[in-house]
Amino acid sequence: MKLALLKRGMDLNYYHHWIVDNMPVTWCYLTNDGQKYCNTGFPMGCYKHAYQDFCSSMIGEGSPNDMYYVFNHVDIRITYHSGEDEEWGSSFQGNGGRIIAVKITPRSISHIEEPGKPPVCSSAQGELQPMAVPKGKLDKPLQIKYTYSIMFQKNNTVKWSSRWDYILESTSHTNIHWFSILNSLMIVLFLSGMVAMIILRTLHKDIARYNQIDSGEDVQEEFGWKLVHGDVFRPPRKGMLLSVLLGSGIQILMMTMVTLAFACLGFLSPANRGALMTCAMVMYVCLGTPAGYISARIYKSFGGEKWKSNIILTSTLVPGVVFCLFFVMNLIFWAKDSSAAVPFSTLLALVSLWVWVSMPLTFIGSFFGFRKRAIEHPVRTNQIPRQIPEQSVYTQAIPGVIMGGVLPFGCIFIQLYFILSSIWSSQTYYMFGFLFLVFLILIITCSETTILLCYFHLCAEDYHWWWRSFITSGFTSIYLFIYCIHYFETRLNISDASSVFLYFGYTLIMVFLFFIMTGSIGFFATFYFVRKIYSVVKVD
């Protein structure tokens, strides 16, 4: 039974993840193209095929094919700083130090056993035979011995405060990815500048033309986006749902910005395990007040009167969906007896934070939001809705929504590779400065793209911009989901049904939150834009 479980672990490419002095142990090896690759873990074993593969390079070409090989020996190299010429090292007196790096080399060894002596891990005649396990059933019991060796290496050139720097070796092809990220950022900045120039220049001409009064005529003929001034602020359908999503979107946006800011400043060190997620959770709970305030203000501007429903939905809809998905996936962890399962007591603590902290803060924000006067729009809304003319292919809703998510996704897809690798491939993510810059560019790109498409629709006399601005910017999440599917197919080797369900379950949570956040960015940018342009034109 244990041997079958061990074979299955090798088939699924399971890894050991060790921690020494609160640091992950790294395993470095050369790839087929001769490049050095480091990983924060090492495999429990491998299966050697007849063709050249990873196992062949680890075990050797002369070993039999179609066999399992267990990595039952590890060579550990611990690098330390002795503390010489350092204030903190005076207590060691040359007999100790602080660990600055731990690296490991796994090997498969069939140990030579001698009565009354420990297992032999090396031989004077050469390398020992690997620990091979046949693919089929065994005729007799098999005993596998696990051994290790340790070598201590002094290195006083690396300071203890910089000991996490060597983890950067765990990211492959770093220079290429940094160049790609920089190139992507330059393209996005250039396109964003072009979009801004087009909008500002065209709008300037429109406003000047609309406000120009012919000396011989008292009445100015209206055309273009000014023609729909009596309908542009007509409340949308499902205004309750839109206001709730916008409040939650602002909450997620502020949580992301604060968390990334703390990470950039170095407060969320990788030495503090779980600090990033803890900070995000605390920020989300504490930012319930802005969510309630924004939701109440938007809902009141729509003329809504069901304020109790708005408060309850704002505090329960988005957190409830995320918690239900998380709880279902945690049930799978419990069923599989996984160490990654969240204890029931921790779930109760999360629910308590939600009920006793986040909800009251949301109620407070909604209270102040509903006490404020409703947002006054710059133009009056007509009683009878204006008929929308037939739209061309480019100004219809679906093509505009599909095009709206392309540019924002273009500025984040390279960073997505690093983020997904840190989540699913045991890589260490450390480029929070770049991530924060990309996040700011994402906000700018979502805003400008949605504003540009909204302007085209208004020029085509289509005034249904409320939901469209939200969905257009939020459609970036659909491209995010497609990229996650591509990453799953090309980068991961997952065959177990429960693991596949967990991957796409967590992906759905990420995509759902990303949809709400980017949708809110596009909506509020468009909301500001529409109010601004209709406040500077003369309307009879």
Kindly describe this structure.
The structure is a single chain. With 540 residues, the protein is an alpha+beta fold. The chain has three domains: 1-169, no CATH class; 176-206 and 397-539, no CATH class; 237-376, no CATH class. Helices cover 52% and strands 10% of the residues. The chain is built from 15 helices and twelve strands. A five-stranded mixed beta sheet has the order 5-4-10-9-12, with no helix packed on it. A three-stranded antiparallel beta sheet has the order 7-8-11. A hairpin with a 2-residue loop joins strand 2 and strand 3 (23-24). It is elongated and about 100 Å long.
Write the layout of secondary structure elements.
Elements: H1 2-11, E1 15-16, E2 19-20, E3 23-24, E4 26-30, E5 36-39, E6 42-43, E7 45-48, H2 54-59, E8 67-70, E9 73-81, E10 98-107, E11 132-134, E12 147-154, H3 174-211, H4 239-264, H5 275-286, H6 288-301, H7 307-335, H8 344-371, H9 397-404, H10 406-410, H11 413-424, H12 432-459, H13 466-474, H14 476-491, H15 497-535
Parallel strand pairs: 4-10, 9-12
Antiparallel strand pairs: 1-6, 2-3, 4-5, 7-8, 8-11, 9-10
Helix pairs in contact: 3-12, 4-5, 4-6, 4-7, 4-12, 4-15, 6-7, 6-8, 7-8, 7-15, 9-13, 11-14, 12-13, 12-15, 13-15, 14-15
